Amino acid sequence: GGPTVSISLKPPGVIPPGGSTTICCSCQCDNGNFVLYRNGHQLHTLELRGRRAEFSIYNATQEDTGAYSCHYQAGGNVLARSETLEVMVREFHLPRPLLSVLPGFEVTAGAHVTFRCTIAHPKAGCFLYIEGQVNTPVFLSEDDDFNISHVQTGDGGHYSCQCFARNNSLEWSAVSKTLELVVR
């Protein structure tokens, strides 16, 4: 019955060395602070601003890779913990994918929407990200689409995709340009 803490990455996706990202922690709570952990070790503490706190990573290195979580504290007690968010820092070797949405960027509630992530590389798999969403990104195998059969206003938002290929190692692309889906 206590507060629920969520954690997300903005922008979502794998980060290139030297890149930056922001870890966003939020909860339905009034006062207190967030403590950010990586691999079980405490990193930073931030006071709540509104109902969220943001922890930025600049000039990312391999040391920033890890399992992050947010703990909400008030009065010296941990009241809630987020799920774990995996943050990866990897070199980008694949071309940038292209994300498209059919029938378009603006649709009416109840419409059928298809997202397609295309990349000039055979046998690449891709992830579809929804900015601010806590849940796991959607995996798309090659020539696979993500369909929403009866789109609702809650499905609107900023979408992007990122691809990878398993060669001798795991190679990544940069994140596609972001598309905003508006549901009316």
Describe the structure.
The protein has 184 residues and is mainly beta. The chain has 2 domains: 83 residues, Sandwich (Immunoglobulin-like); 92 residues, Immunoglobulin-like (Sandwich), CATH 2.60.40.10. It is built from no helices and 18 strands. Strands 9, 11, 13, 14, 16, 17 and 18 form a 7-stranded mixed beta sheet that branches. Strand 3 and strand 4 form a beta hairpin. It is flat and about 50 Å long. The mean pLDDT is 89.
Low-pLDDT stretches are: none
Q: What is the tally of helical segments?
A: 0
Our measurement of the CA-to-CA distance between the termini, rounded to an integer number of angstroms, reads 34 Å
Q: In CATH terms, what is the architecture of the largest domain? A: Sandwich
Task: Please tell me how large the radius of gyration is.
Answer: 18 Å
Find the CATH superfamily of the largest domain: Immunoglobulins
The CATH topology annotation of the largest domain reads as Immunoglobulin-like
Main β-sheet description: 7 strands, mixed
Helix and strand succession? EEEEEEEEEEEEEEEEEE
Would you state the CATH class of the largest domain? Mainly Beta
Count structural domains: 2
Compute the number of strand runs.
Answer: 18
Shape, please?
flat
- Percent range of helical residues: under 10%
Average pLDDT confidence is 89
Protein name: IGSF1 protein
Organism: Ceyx cyanopectus
Keywords: Disulfide bond, Glycoprotein, Immunoglobulin domain, Repeat, Signal
Pfam families: ig
